Amino acid sequence: MEYQILIIGLCVIAWKDAMLKQIPNHMLLILVLVRSVLLFDDMTTAIASFEGFLIGGGVMLFGYLLSKGTMGAGDVKLMAVVGSYAGSDMILQVILWSTLAAAAYSLGLLSKNKTETCKEIPFAPFVLLGTIFCFLLENRGVVC
C-alpha cells in the first residue's frame, strides 16, 4: 500500500512541477511522514529506507552542486523521499531510469528544434515514470 501512496503523491508533485516548475515541500513532508509511520515496527526495512533516503538525496545533491543552478533543490529532496520508499536496493535504478527518460525527452525536443539547450524541463514527471517502471520491474504492487 505504501507504494500506491508514493505513486499518488508523485502524480500530484509531477503535475505541480510541470505546471509551476516547483516541487511543493508540504507534499514531500507528507510522504516522509507517511513512510515513517509505515516503518514504525520494522527495523530492517527502516534501515533500508533510511539508506535509500541518504543515497537518493546524496546522488542528487552531488548533481545539484555540479549543475550550477540548472537543477533545483526540490529535485534533491524529491529523490531523497523516493529513496525512502524504494530503499537502498532500488534507488539507483530509479535515478537511472528517471534520468534516461528526461534525457530522451530533451533529445526529442532538441531534434525538433522546439527548445534551446538552456531551457528548463521539470524533472518530477520523469521521476514518476522512472519510479513506476522500477516498481513494475520489481513487482512491488504498484498497480494492484
Oligomer: single chain
Detail the poorly predicted runs.
none
Helix-strand topology string = HHHHHH
Mean pLDDT across residues: 89
Structure description:
With 144 residues, the protein is an all-alpha fold. It has helices at 2-20, 25-38, 43-67, 73-86, 91-111, 124-138. The chain starts with a helix and ends in a 6-residue tail after the last helix. Helices cover 75% and strands 0% of the residues. It is globular and about 50 Å long. α4 runs parallel beside α6 and α5 (91-111) packs across α6 (124-138).
A few lines on this structure:
By secondary structure, the protein is mainly alpha-helical. Helix content is 75%, strand content 0%.
Give the SSE layout:
Layout: H1 2-20, H2 25-38, H3 43-67, H4 73-86, H5 91-111, H6 124-138
Jot down its keywords.
144 residues; mainly alpha; 6 helices; 75% helix; globular
